[in-house]
Write a structure and sequence with these properties.
Length: about 280
Amino acid sequence: RRLGFQRTADWRRLHALMLDAGLLVESSDIAGAVDVDVERTVAMLALTAVHDIFKLEALRPIVLPQHAPYCGYGANEAIGDHDVALGYILDHDKEALPSIAALPEPQLRSVRFTQSKIGFNHGWLVQAEAPPGALFSQFKRVLATDSVAPADIAFYFVHWLTDLAGAVPSPLLGAEKFVTKFPHAVLDAFLRSFSIVQRLPALSETELNNGFLREWWPQQALGPVPAELSSDESIALMRLVTQAQTEPYQRCVHAAFFAISDETRRILALELARTG
């Protein structure tokens, strides 16, 4: 399984993610080579070191009266959500975390964004389980409020990967969570989707979701999305095919969609093309 991961993992997309996040930069000296951005990498390492410390009850911050309410927590209330707790410290007492306080302001902004409540469920996206409003509305609001750049979104995704990779500690063996315990096809789907989500600052929720569905469409297996379908029917079919995940099931779903009655297809289109 380890050898299979080495051979089949999408290293190209992982490399691109590191470039998008600014952790790697293209070398100005050697064509095709990359350099490590030290500031950016220090920010990621500092975040990785501290982001779970507030799972310890003794370290949970208490909301001061002058900061209340804070993300649903009232004055003198201990913050139970460890991500919200870290956000509170970043907002009001970052000097309590010297490795974070020492970061330059641009890196601090990127670290702060990783703790924002963006309400984004990646599984919902790659399995087409939710409409664009449910997927992206909160994410979009945070982007607009905090002036987030695409590189910050990529930085968030690198943090997301490292957090998941370290969920089962294996310090002498590396990222065992991904290599031996996580479905490789699911990881590949996440990696493939990262660059699409990074377009959210420039697109509406519906534009991004529809673009995702078009890019996810298995054109080699099914050909282009049938031109005779209405816009809503196309969205419904693309969602259903994406939910089927594997090619044999996708072929079955595709055939079934055209075998059902016009009325049934109309109802599916009405429900699955909703944006909110």
